[in-house]
Structure formats: structure tokens, C-alpha cells
């Protein structure tokens, strides 16, 4: 289409016309009569320039209309690069954190040419959507619709030296941006530890001074890896609120005890995020005298924090074990789900010690509790490890679970069967393959060099150990500083620890947090910082969707929502599902349109829209 100027009665007349061909001859069709030039000059400063732009826009609209009408007959070129658009849901939450402005301020004080926010956001988006090494993340950055240009691979590695300096600032930023919007609750904070392995065959060396004193500890050290791998590991402690959203984390060397990590991280997180009194919930591995006393003191000061810990029954003193086995004061209640229906489990059925199957049973909460004046030895001097004996009041609750009893019996039976096979065929086993079963065998030893079971041993089952363990099958204990908390509430809060275990699984499976491919201390810290931000975003996505979908399903839906260029500036979006539809409503994004121009995509998906 174009503007035609023709003379009529000695005056210039403007029209929008369209040219076309019939049998090779050019013809014209009037699309719109505009009027005399001298009349139009009263309305427009430059009528010809104005209507040229109008004709140009009409051309674009006609091209779009023609393209869409003919898409059904068009074969889409497979070489056209598909761009992911689903990640904009992740981007919306990232924008809510205020990280773009944060990094913009940091950039002002640094003599670097690259954009810190572009690199950090790319690392976070990729960790959620397409987790990979830093190199592969850079090489595949064009998979996102957004432009991630202006930096190279070396710039990514250089930026990692800066990101680690901002860890506590970023944690505080995320907390302040989400505490009100997502109604985060810190009455209870859940704490647990895990580890991440590195595919190397040596430990990192600590930095020491001339006298051999450690100045700085490095992370990658051999320690008790969760899956019994021999590789060096780094330990992570994670603190999560009652709404299952992480608050803070810390890293420590793989050869250090996780028991020492709880107090420093809790104090740091409370100070950084300005938190009030809280009750820390952790498993029995963190139940130490210091972790009791330095959180709650002697339990006479209501301003101090509190704790809820798991308590080993089999590893407790005789007085405690006798109290557990004494059936006096136990009460039984049917456990209810949130909807009021009875909670059920599948009970194992045996006849003459032979497993016959399962029977559906209600979960019966058989429990009792007491307030007990517990004496503990606490550290008063870290250097000399000097301790003092103090007394603290503690609520101790024990409960019996048939479901837990069945699990313990089943797990022990497997170990005993393997122990019997080991006794009969010791040459088949070594220190690793005998793990677990060896605890039930008398006189077992392993060759220091090969790890094989040593020759000439008189191996037999530890029947006394087996009988002792059987007495406590199904019993579990929880202890707390909260003396007035009911037994049912105590059990409910402690069971929230399952969510932090699930969170670790997400970092290792969906986010591929391991193995780790960076090696300097600063780069390791920055790697886990991007993992932490990615983890917070995935948890917030879950919460926005009312926890109806797993993280895996959410990420798969986002990965499937792609944009494919067809012709001119038109793209096709050919995927939708209930997750995409719900996210569209939450983030005010129209995911439903199949055909969009580039301009429409930028307007619809990349404006700073608040979460509804």
C-alpha cells in the first residue's frame, strides 16, 4: 500500500491504494479516499508523511492477517530457532526480589564492562530450566527469548568473584521482598544439612600461616557423603521457614561435623533478616548439649529461642529407655488429616514369621510426655574445650507408631539376611558392600589395604543386639524447650522436617546442584548462591500454584512453552496446559494466544507486571 497523489479540479487529492497484478499487468485498487491535500493540511502538519506511516502500518497488519490465514498450509521450517518463553514466570518472581536494581548499584562501583544482573539472572534461570555447567549455560543462552549478550564466558567466571561478596545482602533482599507478599512464618525454623560431591580425587588444602595456624579453611574435603561416595564433598546447612521457603544457608568443609553448624547460621540469619524469637526444628543428629543450651539456656528465659529435636531412643540412657518401655501413662488417639479424615497406613501382615501382605489401618498416635530436669555438659571455652554441667527443663515426648515399627523391622530384616550371607560367603563382601550388615556380625574385621573381609575370622550374628533393637521398634522420641506445647502439636511441627529433606532432593535432582564443576572457594560459594536463589523461586512458584503441582511438573510445563518464528515478525506458541493457564492468571500474562508478533511478545511478556 502507498499514498497516491492525483489532481482533481486543479487540486491535489490523496488516496491509499494497493497495487496488484492480473495476467502480468499492474492494477491499482483504492483502499481509502483521504481527501484534498489543502483540507488535510488543516488537520496535520505534514499529511503526506502522516498517511505514509498509516499505509505502512496497514501493510504490517495485512501481512500478519495474510500469514495467519495461511498458516495451516505452511510447512514450518525446522531450522527456525525455538525460543523459550515459559521462563517469564520465573523472571517475574526474580524481578520481585529487586535484584536488577541491586546489581545496577553494584555495577556503578566496579570497573567492569559486563552487566552483573544479566549474568546472575542467566545463571538462575538456567539452573531452574536447563541446569548445566557455566560453559554450557553460556553456550546455550540463546534458548531464552531474552537477549543475554554483552558478556563472554570469561566474564561469567569473573563475576563469580563478586557474587560471593553479596550473599548476605541477597538473602536479606529476598526475605524483605517476600515476607509480606507470601505471608512467611518464622515461628518455627527448620534446619538440616546435606552434602554435594566434587569429582576430584584430592582434598583442598587450607591456607595456613608460618606457624601452621589455619587462616582460611577450604571446602572440598572427604567426609561422610550421603551416598557413600569416596569423592571430596562440601557440606551445606539450610534454614527454612514454616512456609517451606528457604531463608538462609551456609557452607562448611566436608570433614567437619554438622553439629557445629546450626548455631552460627541461626544467629547470622536472625541478625541479617531481623527475626524475632523462633523455635528451631532439627533432627536428632543436631541434638547436642551446646545446641540445646545456647539456643534456650536453662529454659527459664522466654526471650531466648527454643528448639524441637528428634531424640534417639536406642542411644539414650537406661532411665530414659525404661521410661519409654513402661506402658504407664500412654494414651492413644486416632491421627486426623487436615480434612478431618483418619490418617491411614498399610500394615504388614505376617503368619508364622512369613510375610503375607498388607492391611489398611488407621494411624494410632500412642504417646506420653513429661517435663524432665535434664543435666547437660556445655562448652564454655572452645579453645580448651572446657565444659560445665548445667540443668535445663525439657519436655520429652515419646510415641509409638506401628508403621514405623514395620519399617524398622523390614530394614533390619534386610540387613540380617545380608549379614547371614556375609557370614556364609565373606569373600563376596568388602567394607563398602558390608555397610549396615556388619553391625550385626561378631568379630568382623576388614583388610586396611583392600577393604576385603579379613580371613580366618569366627563370624556369627549378634543376637543380643538384634533382640535389644527389637524392644524399641516403633518408638520415637521428640524433645523440646516448649514445655506447654501439646504432644500432637509437637509431632506435627517435627514432621515438617520432611519438607527440608524434599528441598534438598530438589537441589540435587531438578536443579542439578551436583556434581559441582567450579573449584575456587569464591566460585563454589557463588555457584551455591545461584542455586539458593533458584531454589527460593521454585518454592515460590509452588506456593503461587497452591502446592497443587510438583516442581518437576511446573518446570516441564515452562520448558514446553516455546516461541517459534514463522515469517516476517510473527511467532507461534503451540503449547498450553493447566499449569501455564494458572501461571498466566497469577502473573497477568496472556499465555493463550497462539500467534504473536515480536512487538506483542515484548509487550505481553516483558513488562514489569506485579504478581496478582
Question: Which descriptors apply to this entry?
Answer:
nine-stranded mixed β-sheet, alpha+beta, 612 residues, single chain, four-stranded antiparallel β-sheet
Give a description of the structure.
With 612 residues, the chain is of the alpha+beta class. Helices cover 36% and strands 25% of the residues. The chain contains 19 helices and 22 strands. The chain has a 9-stranded mixed beta sheet, with helices on both faces. It has a 4-stranded antiparallel beta sheet with strand order 4-20-21-22. Strand 20 and strand 21 form a beta hairpin. Helix 3 packs across helix 16 and helix 5 packs across helix 16. The longest helix has 24 residues.
Instruction: State mean pLDDT (0 to 100 scale).
Output: 89
Question: What's the main sheet like?
Answer: 9 strands, mixed
Number of strands: 22
How much strand content do the residues show? 15-25%
What is the structure about, briefly put?
This protein has 612 residues and is α+β, with helices and mostly antiparallel strands.
